Amino acid sequence: xxxxxxxxFALAVLAWVLVVGDLVRRHRPAWHWxxxxxxxxxxxxxxxxxxVAVLNDLAVSHRPRRxxxxxxxxxxxxxxxxxxxxxxxxxxxxxxxxxxxxxxxQTPATYMKAADAFVHAWxxxxxxxxxxxxxxxxxxxxxxxxxxxxxxAAAPAxxxxxxxxxxxxxxxxxxxxxxxxxxxxxxxxRSGKSxxxxxxxxxxxxxxxxxxxxxxxxxxxxxxxxxRLSALxxxxxxxxxxxxxxxxxxxxxxxxxxxAGVRSIWELPDPLRPIPVVVIVDEIAELYLSDxxxxxxxxxxxxxxxLLRLAQLGAALGLHLVVAGQRVGSDLGSGVTALRAQLGGRxxxxxxxxxxxxxxxxxxxxxxxxxAQAITAEERGVAVCTxxxxxxxxxxxxxxxxxxxxxxxxxxxxTTPVLAALHGAVEFLxxxxx
Length: 434
Ligand SMILES: Nc1ncnc2c1ncn2[C@@H]1O[C@H](COP(=O)(O)OP(=O)(O)OP(=O)(O)O)[C@@H](O)[C@H]1O
Ligand SMILES: [Mg+2]
Known about the structure:
This protein has 434 residues and is of the alpha/beta class. 38% of the residues lie in helices and 20% in strands. Helix 2 (29-55) packs across helix 4 (115-122), helix 5 runs parallel beside helix 12 and helix 8 (294-313) runs parallel beside helix 9 (334-342). Bound molecules: adenosine-5'-triphosphate and magnesium ion.
């Protein structure tokens, strides 16, 4: 009788553990990871390490590839290759890291090629290979895709900083225009560019910052936020007007700095400091592609020159550019490549062709290009973004519903700075809009 009772008891305990385990996994994924996921994954890392290393040419033998057998010279792969030394896996939130000591002659590139093999052997979502120090590589494994449901972080309080979304590492994705003054946002249609711009606008709306919109798709996207925009250009001719006025304003700021003997507006005393301006361009191609007529050609050239001047000189003068486009290549004209070189911050969403990812990130980091190309159509708002320290990360912007974004810009409409320099350059947004 005691046998069946204890069996029933054991089954009940097992069922309870499974149910509780599943609840913990769904509601407290981090706890589940530390309690169950991490020990299992760490065991897999250590138990499969040698095999994965051998199969992916990471193990080397200290014996020569050729030797003498009697009177004969024999060539071949020596037995007993030695796997590189690996540290004990360290748990991170929803992942783990291991440090590997490279064999002499190895480079991190060999490990990058093997990243997929690690993913399968350890049964994790992804493995990133970085080199924290010469002679070492760090393998960072993530258990699940943290960008599926990005957690909300606290917004930064700093001027010209915006909380855009979440990084793959679990940290906050922040654009800080004081650290990186100009940004390029690339991505195919419906990949999340305008959503990101809307997020940026709502984050900057409460700050003492002038926002200027250039949306030559007739103002369809940025027109929604016109209440908080100090000016909005909805066609190329208006864009030329706004950008010319900003360049004139920039010259005024230069003069101000020169007479005060300072090198940037941030060194000026508060009462003298002009308000920072963020120029947001949605769909750069509309500014650069001409329909062949003389007038249109002249306008595109003007736009190109004006944007380049703002990018080259604006950073220290509190003039910032955030430029979004589906393609940002030399097919738009030579000026666009020069502009791209000035836009230090890069964000690349899903792309249709490898060329766009290459254009957005290729001059900074080749690995980032490959990760950007792997973003799928379902992963809207997912992008590869660069960080001020020269690194990069996969990230996802927060989806701000349009009504919420419009409501925020309306709330702060009364604080919209008036830019005297822009007066007359474009139709000013009338009071009803605000
Ligand atoms: N971060 C995000 N999270 C979830 N969904 C998103 C996110 N970003 C964008 N989306 C979805 O993708 C759709 C398209 O996004 P968006 O309009 O920003 O693309 P786009 O790159 O500006 O496209 P286009 O080049 O055609 O203007 C949005 O309507 C939204 O539903
Ligand atoms: Mg768009």
